[in-house]
Sequence to fold (337 residues):
Amino acid sequence: MLVLRALGLGDLLTAVPALRALRRHLPGHETVLAAPARLAAATAATSLVDRLLPTSAAGRAMPAELDWTGSPPDLAVDLHGNGPPSHLLLQRLNPRRLFAYAHPGTPGVPGPVWRDDEHERERWCRLLGWYGIAADPESLGIPPPPTPSPAPGAVVVHPGADAGARRWPGERFAAVARELRRRGLDVVLTAGAGEKEAARSVAAAAGLPVDTVLGGADGDLPFDRLAALVGGARCVVVGDTGPAHLATALGTPSVVLFGPVAPRLWGPPARPRHRVLWHPAGDDSARPGDAHGTRPDQRLLRITVDEVVDEVVDLLAHAPARPCPDNDGALAPKAFR
Fold:
């Protein structure tokens, strides 16, 4: 079974409910995920995939080809897109069956109708439901990391994002970190690839030592350390990006800041341990802004430092006990490759 999801960390984690349903439906199949090589550790951590087929493209473009060898897949599942590029990419492998959304450009592919205004987790579960596979969009947990946290009990602040439109200003993150530290909370910062200097600037403005910044030197923080850090955190403060989805998957309390895309499309489930902040100012369309724009979205800029601090403090005072990870049905994988 080949599943195409050649995107980022958040995209992988929003696909966990669909991957879990596929695993349960076809337990005897080897599950292969076509995704970027940098997601190998995160993919293995889900316990839902046997093998990664490395593939990627610039930005969020479609890969030109898949390096598939051997006999055709019994089943190919398009969890990547809804149009001819992803359909044709999988069709070239001659799978016995192809699960995908319908599109007039590929009339030979049956499937349900795509909806723009639909949460990403629900979208892929609905696709599988159309083909007779029950999938629960709330079944999104992954097993807790086996390694200890480098900063247990800290509030994790992640000021980065892969697009400026979803990046709250660094000086505001610094003000939040400074105030939380003043209230006696341990605070650490995380940085992705290329974000080291920006994160260090936030730390300096917050009055935090440079060693409170984890990651960003030669690339992303290794997934095992990031998962251990997020899994052992008291709370994660983050924009609409990968670590927000990791907090959701591990059941860690989170405060997530949204701008150009509505939280009803990409936000955490409506559970007391997760809070979202979003100020559409009358424009509550699903995608009122450009999620990949270079400048901070106005809806994001309407979020104030005091709001974020208040949400964190209230969340820490009232967050319920963490649940056991809802990884029911996740069968033990073969040796991950």
Notes: Residues 327-333 have pLDDT under 50 and may be disordered. The chain is about 30% helix and 15% strand. The domain at 2-130 is CATH 3.40.50.2000 (Rossmann fold).
